[in-house]
Structure formats: structure tokens, C-alpha cells
Amino acid sequence: MGEAFIKKQEDIRGFLSRFDNVLPASLAFDKCTACSPIVLDHYEREGFSFLSKVFNSSHSFLEDLTGLTLLHQETQAAEVNHTLSHTCANR
């Protein structure tokens, strides 16, 4: 996980029953396709050229750049291994 604390408008949680809002503080996700350091760095260095690459590339361009694709693959592999180990243990 990232180290910076983030606060965004979409993080505000409202409770009508109490007429109350809560703004939770959480660590920034280091693989965020919008605000991760690698995305911000590429944008700062390349500007519109980077945006053009994002818009004209495959749907997984940002996911590949940030590591989300690899994280997803690792998660799927772990789920398969977990399922297989429990299936074999129950026989």
C-alpha cells in the first residue's frame, strides 16, 4: 500500500439518519490507475503524449503500468491453488 493519506470527494460517506458526514482517512493504494506515483510520474514527464497512449492503447494499459494486471493474476493463481489444495485434502 502507498504511504500518502488521501482524501477525495468520493470518499465522503453521508448518513441521512444522523444528518452526518464522515471523511475516512486511508492509505493511498499504490496501484491506483488515477493517482499512483507511477501514473503521476508518467503524466508529469510525458503530458499529453501519455494521455494519448492511455486513450489509444488496450483497455489494460493503466492496469499493466500500475501492476494491477499482475496483482489480479497472482490473486487468481492463489485462489486456484487454495481451491485445489482443499479439494485434494477432502478426498
User: How is the main sheet built?
Assistant: 2 strands, antiparallel
From the alpha carbons, calculate the radius of gyration and give it in angstroms.
19 Å
Strands, count: 4
Q: Can you tell me the number of structural domains?
A: 1
Helices, by number, come to 4
Query: What class, by secondary structure content?
Result: mainly alpha
Protein name: Ubiquitin-like modifier-activating enzyme ATG7 isoform X1
What report would you give on this structure?
This protein has 91 residues and is mainly alpha-helical. The chain has helices at 37-46, 48-56, 61-66, 68-89; strands spanning 5-6, 13-15, 20-22, 26-27. It has one domain. The chain has 4 helices and 4 strands; from the N terminus they run ββββαααα. A two-stranded antiparallel ribbon has the order 1-4. A two-stranded antiparallel ribbon has the order 2-3. Strand 2 (13-15) and strand 3 form a beta hairpin. The N and C termini lie far apart (38 Å).
Quick structural overview:
This is Ubiquitin-like modifier-activating enzyme ATG7 isoform X1. The protein has 91 residues and is mostly helical.
Could you list some keywords that capture this structure?
single chain, 91 residues, mainly alpha, two-stranded antiparallel sheet, 4 helices, flat
SSE diagram, text form:
Elements: E1 5-6, E2 13-15, E3 20-22, E4 26-27, H1 37-46, H2 48-56, H3 61-66, H4 68-89
Protein name: Ubiquitin-like modifier-activating enzyme ATG7 isoform X1
